[in-house]
Specification:
Length: about 260
């Protein structure tokens, strides 16, 4: 039996890929949006194959999730696919896990500091796009009652990390969007939460200058003396999709083994 569809923004690697597989094992079909070059497409195909091996459908689109026109086309495609089922299916889970932004400092010599277009792009992709996807899903009537919306945040929303300024601002904005969406969608029984993962070895982490020092720090301060895994996050997300968690909304849920309170 299908549990309907889960839409994952940033589905090809890291948290998105792990959550997609875990949700598929729980009975959800997966509609994944990702942005990959030709060199990383073999890994995307592997993710699709692993999802399909669970017996669930996997529809993946290689596109810019923050592009308004492409978002419209993607939702039209998903809507048509869901209409093929009897009775027509709906979206029960949305995960925002987009990790694409600038890692330039605010203050630096000319030409080496973050620019307005780069700052705007980071905020648009990593924060504001959540609002636009939710708006379109609600307007189209694609979200099922008691559906769940999740956004991936990090301790960087309230901690200073070198080169992380623009992303930190985006994460703080994302958490604000989660609270506002939770408030406005509560009458429709749609729950919205942020998952704050601990430091996790993902492709996004490896792009941050000095990530090796960040790993060493996390291993020292985390009470369990290990990094967070994508499976830790995926298991939490699936649990929060259960019927006993319908009263949890508008909050930031730490999935870090106590890393943030210890650091």
């Amino acid at each position: 039996m299908s549990n309907g569809w889960a839409v994952i923004l940033g589905a090809s690697s890291g948290f998105g890929a792990a959550c997609g597989l875990a949700l598929a094992k729980s009975g959800y079909n997966i509609f994944g949006v990702h942005l990959d070059l030709k060199t990383t497409m073999p890994k995307v195909k592997e993710v699709v194959q692993r999802i399909e091996a669970t017996g669930r459908q996997a529809v993946f689109l290689n596109m810019n999730a923050a592009d308004e026109i492409k978002r419209t086309l993607a939702l039209e495609k998903l809507q048509a696919r869901m209409a093929e089922a009897t009775p027509p299916e709906r979206v029960h889970v949305l995960l925002h896990s987009l990790a694409f932004g600038t890692l330039l400092p605010f203050i630096a010599p000319a030409g080496q500091a973050v620019t307005k277009p780069q700052m705007d792009m980071t905020l648009d992709v990593m924060a504001n796009s959540l609002v636009y996807w939710v708006q379109d899903l609600v307007t189209r009537g694609m979200l099922a009652p008691d559906s769940r919306i999740f956004a991936m945040t990090s301790a960087g929303s309230h901690r200073v990390v070198p080169h992380y300024g623009a992303v930190s601002a985006a994460k703080a904005a994302l958490e604000s969007h989660v609270r506002q969406l939770a408030y406005e969608l509560a009458p429709q029984a749609i729950r919205v939460n942020a998952l704050q993962a601990g430091l996790t070895d993902t492709p996004a982490l490896r792009k941050i200058p000095g990530n090796e020092k960040m790993v060493d720090w996390a291993l020292q301060v985390n009470p369990s003396r290990r990094l967070t895994s994508v499976e830790d996050v995926a298991g939490t997300l699936v649990s929060l999709c259960g019927p006993g968690t319908s009263w949890v909304t508008g909050t930031i849920i730490r999935v870090d083994g106590g890393e943030d309170i210890s650091g």
